[in-house]
Specification:
455 residues; 6-stranded mixed sheet; 13 helices; 24 strands; globular; binds adenosine-5'-triphosphate
Amino acid sequence: MSETTVNMEKLVNLCQRRGFVFQSSEIYGGLSGCWDYGPLGIELKRNIKQAWWKAMVQDRDDMVGIESSILMAPQVWVASGHLVNFTDPLVECKGCNQRFRADLIAGTKCPNCGGALSEPRNFNTMFKTFIGPVENDASVVYLRPETAQGMFVNFDNVLQTTRKKLPFGIAQQGKSFRNEITTGNFIFRSREFEQMEMEYFVKPGTDEKWFEYWLNERMNWYVNHGIKREHLSILEHEKAKLAHYAKRVCDITFLYPMGWEEIEGLASRTDYDLKQHSNASGKVLDYYDDETKEHYTPYVIEPAVGVDRCFLAFLADAYHEEPDKDETRVVLKFHPSLAPVKVAILPLSKKENLAAYAKDVHQQIRGQYATQYDDTQSIGRRYRRQDEIGTPYCVTVDFQSLEDHRVTVRDRDSMNQIRIPVAELQKTLTAKLAGEAFLKLPAGGEVVTAKGKEA
Ligand code: ATP
């Protein structure tokens, strides 16, 4: 089993210091289980969501996306079973009155004071609110605890408007809310979080094959975006403990700073959800198979992942501390597609003629990727700052650039440097962000330093 490279305190610290994540309502002392994403955090989060959307929807012919509302008719949660079953076992300490989720604590005593615990009772974690001006039982609605039901209730809408043939999937990303009994481990378990879920509808009998397929696809997605394979594992749920409608459930677990925990769940849910909604609403939710000339209710395979848990995982695996001269260099080695800033433009001085030239260089590449222009402090400190936020490339503009129209590009991971014509800059950066070897030079380029090992 491999070890994590970073402890949580360092990650939380970096996130606050560099503006990735803040506590919600911090100036009022914070709101437990809620987090705000700062200027860099929102970029990373959007990049994660885009990478998922691209792989799951845009690059495929068998997938479409939707965005359903967070508030849904309360009957949805009756039919889905959430109103009765979406509960966690709650225990309360008879001594200090603190409450815990029974399945998340070890032993039978209070983890806080060692006191005796009450018998567990089922606590429904759906948030309730009211629709309209009257607060009574008839106006109760729930904040969705998952995005999945939005896909099931829209199954026929999507089928009719897209004329998709099985197998096909519906994907969505969005906020979900759970009134977790205890939150913690930073953004790992919160009360308001974001999910990326997909329902893949298949012909009954082909579900086992498709489960394997999606498990494999999802594992590859993490590795292709920078997660270490040895930090991922598959936890198969015991057949005897599965919900009656589930044929198979696997968690993809990740080695977080606090240990192995679920990052994503894959479930083979049979035709349960479509049938439940069909029975409760009276609307037929089935599929007409052109080839076999029969109507049937598709089975479904569901990969469900939390954006915030992905965020923490990508951050943890990107985090590196390396000796550099007499200091320690902190560097986030994000996959280029996830890095919040792709390229930083660093003029060597604030002198007017150089600044004008550097701004012109910046102008030529901004709009292509997320960039930063930084002209404060020494160049060494600026490199450190960019390393610490995971910027793959820094472009330094110096006085020589005014003469030879060339700039120095520094690679985050190897710290190697090349000097290339400004005219080649955009093309070169685009190629390198897409994976080209850093020391491969464009016409008119030269290697400045090549001491570091290239990835
Ligand atoms: P857990 O057992 O950790 O409570 P779960 O099995 O209830 O999670 P699912 O219902 O399978 O989780 O939700 C799918 C995904 O949504 C999870 O794998 C996780 O990434 C994310 N998720 C669920 N609950 C939370 C939460 N409270 N905070 C952040 N992400 C969450």
